[in-house]
Amino acid sequence: MTSLFNRRTLGSALAAALAVLAAPAAFAQTPSEKPLRIIVGAPAGGTSDIVSRMLADGLQKELNRTVIVEPKPGAGGALAVNDLMQAAHDGNTVLVAPSALVSEIPHIVKLRFDVAKETKPIAELARAGLVMVGHPSVPAKNLAEVIAYVKANPGKVSYASYSAGTMSHVMGLHLNKAAGIDMKHVGYKGSPPALADVVGGHVPLMFDGIPTSLPMIKAGRVVPYAVSLPQRSPLLPNVPTFNELGYPQNEAMVWIGLWLTPNVPAAAQERLRAAALKVMGQPAIRERLKELGMDSGQPRTSDELAKSLATDYERIGAVLKSIDFKPE
User: Could you tell me if 246 and 263 lie in one domain?
Assistant: First the structure.
């Protein structure tokens, strides 16, 4: 009887000990302890990639977990969205991409899914405006002189965009209509090749993101005429806004956000949002963003971000429809 009791007691003790030993391993497999994977809907080295790596460094410390950044360029961010959709919807895979993902790309590329329904913006990480620039050979020191130059050369002056159908394209259409001019559009696949052609004098004008053009402006390789921001950029204090110059339709702000699939648990969404806003609000990161020509994102809610995306989508769509633009 005593022997049976001892065997049972020993068995129970061993089982308890094994359970205790197994507990850390089981705990290590919980979602919160898995690496956080950040998919970037843009090429390595681009603005979204730079922002995502700032975020990753901060989140690694803030959440005390491994964070992996994976650039997934292609199809205007659609490949990255597809990757996000295929991953487990547990908050361990997120997407960093510009607002164009919802407001512009669906007008440009035929997609097999509705990006606005399959993704949810949970935080605005950084924001920036666009700037109209020109090659130094253009005989104009300001926007009024650019407009006069285009009017004096009807049908002969072109402008570059970083992609047809984007805000970079639409701003030129807005200015054409408002100023009564006829700049011809030349679309590129990305800002670097477009800006290179402007710097090389192959295309005289361009609407580009401030972060991309800023080094060329500082080097005197291109001339800035106006920015799309609500106020002048601290980095370009002598460059007026389009609104100042009487073209309010060219006021526009683009932002880089943190996105999830909508069915990620609410607690995980809120935890990631709070951590991301805290990281991107740190003084060192805010200063780094300013050096790149960007500002920290605003603490807008998911609903506020979604509403602004819907408004921009409709606004851009209306302009593209007026010129019978067709997606690729």
Answer: no
Q: What is the mean pLDDT of residues 296-317?
A: 94
Sequence-distant contacts of 3-10: CB under 8 A, at least 24 apart: none
Q: What is the pTM of this model?
A: 0.79
In a shared domain, residues 242 and 134 = yes
More confident residue, 307 or 45: 307
Question: Which CATH number does the domain housing residue 53 bear?
Answer: 3.40.190.150
Q: Report how far residue 100's alpha carbon sits from residue 105's, in angstroms, rounded to the nearest whole number.
A: 6
Q: Taking 50 as the threshold, does the pLDDT of residue 160 lie above it?
A: yes
- DSSP E strands in the chain: the ranges are 36-40, 67-71, 93-98, 120-128, 130-134, 158-161, 184-187, 205-209, 223-227, 254-260, 295-296
Do 119 and 258 share a structural domain?
Answer: yes
Residues shown for the chain:
328
Distance CA 16, CA 249 (A): 70
Residue 112: pLDDT band with limits 50, 70, 90: confident
Note whether 109 and 144 are same-domain residues: no
Determine the pLDDT at residue 4: 34
By CB atoms closer than 10 A (0-12, 13-18, 19+), residue 238 is: exposed
Residue 310: predicted pLDDT = 95
The domain of 194 spans: 130-250
pLDDT at 283 exceeding the cut of 80: yes
Degrees, nearest 5: CA angle 142-225-208: 155
Rounded distance between C-alpha atoms, residue 29 and residue 77, angstroms: 30
The one-letter code for the residue type at 265 is P
* Residues 71 and 175 reside in one and the same domain: no
Q: Evaluate whether residue 13 is within a structural domain.
A: no
**In the β-sheet with 254-260, what is the strand arrangement from edge to edge?**
67-71, 36-40, 93-98, 254-260, 120-128, 295-296
As a whole-number percent, the residues of the chain with pLDDT over 90 amount to 69
DSSP tag of 130: E
CA dist 152 to 139, 155, 222, 242, Å?
A: 11, 10, 21, 21
pLDDT over 70 (residue 7): no
